[in-house]
Amino acid sequence: MDPHEVGIYIHRYITDLHRAPLSLDIVHMATTLGFPYLLCLLCLSGIQSVVAVSGLTRPFLPVPSLTQIRDILADLEAPIISALTERTNLATPPGLYANGGAELMSYMLVRENAAAASGRYDYGKLEYPFTLPIIPPDIATPSNTFPPGRFHEDTYTGNANITSFYINSLVPFFNSSTSFFYHLDNSTYDIDAVFNLDATLLALLSHRAHIGKIVAETKYAGNVAEITKFIKAGDSTSILVAITNTTQEAAVYAQAYKATSGFSSGWLQAGALVPTTFNSTLEAAAHTLFQELIAITSEIEVQYLLQRLN
Ligand SMILES: O=C(O)C(=O)C[C@]1(C(=O)O)C=C[C@@H](O)C=C1
Q1: Closest ligand 1 atom, CA of 243?
Q2: 106-115: per-residue pLDDT in tens?
Q3: Is 196 in contact with 284 (CB distance < 8 Å)?
Q4: Which ranges form a coiled coil (predicted)?
Q5: Does the predicted TM-score (pTM) go above 0.90?
Q6: In testing the pocket of ligand 1, which one of 63, 244, 290, 305 has its CB within 8 Å of the most ligand atoms?
Q7: Percent of the chain having pLDDT more than 90?
Q8: Which residues sit with their C-beta closer than 6 Å to ligand 1?
Q9: Do 156 and 304 touch, CB atoms closer than 8 A?
Q10: Contact (CB, 8 A) for 15 and 139
């Protein structure tokens, strides 16, 4: 066991209060970790109660049914398209996303530090920061084997893929020369407004994509034998095939299209001075976005399952 795994094990040990007989775990840890580490763990157990009151415990989180999760995903489409519509309406200063979006990431770091302090990225929230480390994963122990249907935290986040997709594929759609934040001084750019919407959109995309973890858990619970075989073989291609549902993907595109035309016709019917290409730009951006979002969600599902039996 490498030091990282030991760290994870220690964290798991002191934060999991839903435990079966302690003696069982002690025997297991002694054989797995060796006696020096065991001694260390026993010392740490003294602060278990402190951890408990500080809210670091990891509850048993059963996942909802696939139908319920898909409804949740569907309900997240309108907020995503709404933020996308607002962002498309803001002019982008040239070079704003240079160096892989370094300036945007600095902006987000400040927000994410505040968000982390308020517990936004805690266990089971399905919110993962772009600029901070994520919470340690779960590791099954003899007293908690994580039965199918119970959420299992893994180490994967799709946020690097989301950032890269956002900057390279989505930002080019944000080519409006005028801004819908009206400025009396005739200025065009409002960097804080732009980054604020970027951060909102990125967080929404990330949350939606990481719900893939519970989609994966539900699918695992519904097909334990086959998926376990693929996990044990490390066969990511077969896992991807097992979790893919093209009929559902078509439904997602249709819903996204409906939301997009609703938002764009709202702007047009209101007589807003949108550029003539506004409608088609928004539709193209939404299509690209959902295509990539499904791919990133699927990858999160695959990575989650690959670690499911850890
Ligand atoms: O609904 C599912 O079954 C999912 O896995 C989610 C999702 C999506 O991102 O919307 C991803 C992959 C599937 O091919 C279909 C849809």
Answers
A1: 5
A2: 999 999 999 9
A3: no
A4: none
A5: no
A6: 244
A7: 68
A8: 70, 73, 215, 243-245, 248-249, 252, 294, 297-298, 301
A9: yes
A10: no
Kindly report, residue by residue over 139-149, the tens digit of the pLDDT: 988 888 899 99
Question: Are 202 and 110 part of one and the same domain?
Answer: yes
Question: Closest ligand 1 atom to the C-alpha of 245?
Answer: 14
Q: Which residues pair with 150 in a beta bridge?
A: 62
- Probe ligand 1: pick from 213, 219, 248, 255, max atoms within 8 Å of CB? 248
Per the structure, the count of domains in the chain is: 2
> Do both 285 and 240 map to the same domain?
yes
Structural element, H or E, at residue 109: helix 98-117
- Index of the ligand 1 atom closest to the CA of residue 252: 10
Whether residue 92 sits in one domain with residue 51: no
One domain, residues 50 and 99: no
| 83 and 137 both lie in a single domain | yes
Query: Helix, strand or coil for residue 62?
Result: strand
The boundaries of the domain holding residue 51 are: 1-57
70 and 216 housed in the same domain: yes
